[in-house]
Amino acid sequence: MGTIDGLPTLRDVIRDHDLVARKQLGQNFLLDLNLTAKIARQAGDLTACDVLEIGPGPGGLTRGLLAEGARRVLCIEKDPRCLPALEQIAQAYPGRLQIICGDALQIDPLAHLTAPIRVIANLPYNIGTELLVRWLTPPAWPPFWNSLTLMFQREVAERIVAKPRTEHYGRLALLAQWRCDARIVMSLPPEAFTPAPKVHSAVVHLTRLDGPRYPADGAVLARVTAMAFNQRRKMLRSSLKGMGPGIEEKLVSAGIEPTARAEEIGLEQFCALARLIG
Q1: Domain range 10-208, CATH architecture
Q2: Which of 22, 33, 110, 221 could pair with 274 as two cysteines, CB 3.0-4.6 Å apart?
């Protein structure tokens, strides 16, 4: 698809602004505006929402979000080379696009956004998981966002939606599924990107729940799951012995065999154990 908004094609934008993707910034540009508009649509109706986008690069997804009717988009971009291309988009959509140049790990976007807020991004590979964990573990729940529609490496996406006793099941699945509905909504091959990464990618859509699926203290649950999965091949009575005395009794009280391993235990049982450890 050439254009959706009268602006130059993304290939022309990259050529005109000399935007060679930089590996150290985790950049892989998605140039097909059909695909970027499709990603935007996975988040639902955007007309009454502000959207936070991290790492817009030359603005392919940004253009998709605006063309699909997002009330307002806030972009945080670390690479100053991309700013002229993004400013060109802002001029085409007056008053609907704000651009902040900086590190998304260091910037608080809330002063620039009005609820309801959706986060939609082709996240830079090098910070994607860290940002997701931050969004899933805020000091208070519900968080500032209503939903997250995020592109990751396929393996990371599978870790988010994984179930017990599967290859990708671990702490990330528990953090995501404790307070969200999570599902993979799109898959993309390497050749969809410039430059083509070595792995497939996938878009995950997470919708926040009003509260957790099962009661537990978030800090305790995070500590228990971190300790359990850091030594995932060990029996839980061994991997969790640092949680204090009587761990075998607490495991049994939570309905967990002390000889079980972390990958065998579901979210409800982990929450029951966290309540007992308290």
Answers
A1: 3-Layer(aba) Sandwich (3.40)
A2: 221
Nearest to 194 by CA among 5, 9, 7, 54: 9
The β-bridge relationship of strands 72-77 and 97-101 is parallel
158-214: pLDDT as tens digits: 999 999 999 999 999 999 999 999 999 999 999 888 778 889 999 999 999 999 999
pTM of this prediction? 0.92
Other Cβ atoms less than 10 A from the Cβ of 264: the count is 15
Scored b (16 or more CB within 10 A) or e, 108-122 reads ebeeebeeebbbbbb
Work out whether strand 193-194 and strand 29-30 pair parallel, antiparallel, or are unpaired.
Answer: antiparallel
Q: Are 119 and 151 in contact (CB under 8 A)?
A: no
Q: How does pLDDT run across 92-131, given as a tens digit for each residue?
A: 999 999 999 999 999 999 999 999 999 999 988 789 999 9
**What is the Cα Rg of the chain in Å?**
21
> Rounded CA gap, 271 and 142, in Å?
18
- Taking the C-alpha atoms of residue 229 and residue 177, their distance in angstroms, rounded to an integer, is 16
Place of tokens 């892989």: 28
> Would you say 213 and 270 are in contact if contact means Cβ atoms under 8 Å apart?
no
- The string over 11-40, giving b where at least 16 C-beta atoms fall within 10 Å of a residue's C-beta and e elsewhere, is eebbeebebebeeebbbbbbbbbebbbbbb
d(C-alpha 142, C-alpha 57), whole Å: 30
Residue with structure tokens 């094609």? 9
